[in-house]
Design goal:
The protein is of the alpha/beta class. Helices cover 38% and strands 19% of the residues. The chain contains eleven helices and nine strands. The strands form two sheets. The chain has a six-stranded parallel beta sheet, sandwiched between helices. Strand 8 and strand 9 form a beta hairpin. Helix 7 crosses helix 8 and helix 10 runs antiparallel to helix 11. Bound molecules: adenosine monophosphate.
C-alpha cells in the first residue's frame, strides 16, 4: 500500500494507472475509519482495479472551530485498517497541500445545499463540494464512493458532478449499522453511555414511519407527528430537524405522499464534557410499494 501526501504524486500515479488501462475507485473520508467506511472500500474494489482512500479532515466544512478540534484523528490506526482491507493507495495530504497559501476558490451548489443540514450548518456543504472537487482533480478516479447515510451530501455531489461535467461515476452505498440499528459514525463514540443507549430512537422512528406507510398512512403531517412522538420517547434526544423531502430535489413534499419520499432526521444527544452530538439518518419511504419503478433504495 502506498501512502501519498502530495497532489502531484497522486496525479502522476493516476495518469500511469489510466495509461495502463486500469480503473480507479476513490473513497473520500475524514479518517477515524469504521466498518461503514470499509464497506465503501469493498464496493470501490468491486467496481475498479485499484481502490484509493483519501483521509483528510477538511477544515472548510466545519462551521464550528471547536468541532474541527474535537474531530478524532488516528492516522496510524487508519493506515493499518486500509492495509488490512487491501487498499492500494492512501492519500493523506496536509491542510496546506489542499489549501495553498492565499487560496480563494470554492465550489458551491445552489438550492440543494440550503435546506436540512445546510440550514443548520451554514457553509458546510460549500466546504464539502470544494474539497470533493479538489480530491477528484487530484485522484482522477473513474468511480467515487459515498455513503447514503450522508444522503444530502451524496445528492449534492451527484448534482455537482452533473453540473460541472466531471468524468467520474458517483456510487452510493447503503448505511452500515451497529447490531442495535444505530448508523455507524465516528461521532457515536462521543455520546455519553446513556445517550448511546437512547440513540436507537433515531432508527426506530424511521422504522415507525416505514410501518405507518406500509399500513396506508399517506398524510405527511401525521407521519412527521408519529416520528416526533417516537423520538420524544428518548428523554435525552432533541430534534434538530425531521423532514419529508423529494428524494432527488430535496424540495418539500405535498401534504399527501404520492411517490418515494425521503425521511431525513438530525437529532442531538448529550456528549461528554457538556457537549452535544448531532446524529443524522434517513430512509426513503415507498408509498407505492418497494417495486415503485420510478425509484428504489433512495438512489438519486
Ligand atoms: P466521513 O469520514 O464520516 O466524512 O465519511 C466518509 C464517507 O463514509 C462518506 O461518504 C460517508 O457517507 C460514509 N459513511 C459514514 N458512515 C457510514 C456508514 N455507517 N455506512 C456507510 N457509509 C458511511
Amino acid at each position: 500500500m502506498r501512502v501519498i501526501e502530495t497532489i502531484r504524486e497522486l496525479q502522476d500515479l493516476a495518469d500511469a494507472e489510466r495509461a495502463a488501462g486500469r480503473k480507479i475507485s476513490l473513497v473520500p473520508t475524514m479518517g477515524a475509519l469504521h466498518p461503514g467506511h470499509l464497506a465503501l472500500v469493498e464496493t470501490g474494489r468491486e467496481r475498479a482495479d485499484r481502490v484509493w482512500v483519501s483521509i483528510f479532515v477538511n477544515p472548510t466544512q466545519f462551521n464550528a472551530p471547536a468541532d474541527l478540534e474535537k474531530y478524532p484523528r488516528q492516522l496510524e490506526v487508519d493506515l493499518e485498517r486500509c492495509c488490512e482491507s487491501g487498499v492500494d493507495v492512501v492519500f493523506c495530504p496536509a491542510a496546506e497541500e489542499m489549501y495553498p497559501d492565499g487560496a480563494q476558490t470554492a465550489v458551491e451548489v445552489g438550492a440543494l445545499a440550503e435546506s436540512l443540514c445546510g440550514a443548520t450548518r451554514p457553509g458546510h456543504f460549500k466546504g464539502v463540494t470544494t474539497i470533493v472537487t479538489k480530491l477528484l482533480l487530484a485522484a482522477k478516479p473513474h468511480f467515487a464512493i459515498f455513503g447514503e447515510k450522508d444522503y444530502q451530501q451524496l445528492a449534492i455531489v451527484r448534482r455537482m458532478v452533473l453540473d460541472l461535467g466531471f468524468d467520474v461515476e458517483i456510487v452510493g452505498e447503503p448505511t452500515l449499522r451497529e447490531s442495535d440499528g444505530v448508523a455507524l459514525s465516528s461521532r457515536n463514540a462521543r455520546l455519553t453511555p446513556e445517550a448511546r443507549r437512547q440513540a436507537t430512537v433515531v432508527v426506530r422512528s424511521l422504522e415507525e414511519a416505514e410501518r405507518a406507510v406500509e399500513a396506508g398512512e399517506r398524510n405527511s403531517a401525521r407521519l412527521l407527528e408519529r416520528v416526533r412522538r417516537e423520538i420524544s420517547k428518548a428523554p435525552l434526544a432533541r430534534i434538530d430537524y425531521a423532514e419529508l423531502r423529494d428524494p432527488d430535489s430535496l424540495a418539500p413534499v405535498p401534504s399527501t405522499l404520492d411517490g418515494p419520499t425521503l425521511l431525513a432526521l438530525a437529532v442531538l444527544f448529550p456528549a461528554a464534557e457538556n457537549d452535544s452530538v448531532r446524529l443524522i439518518d434517513n430512509r426513503t419511504l415507498q408509498p407505492n410499494g418497494p417495486s415503485d419503478p420510478s425509484r428504489q433504495n433512495g438512489r438519486v
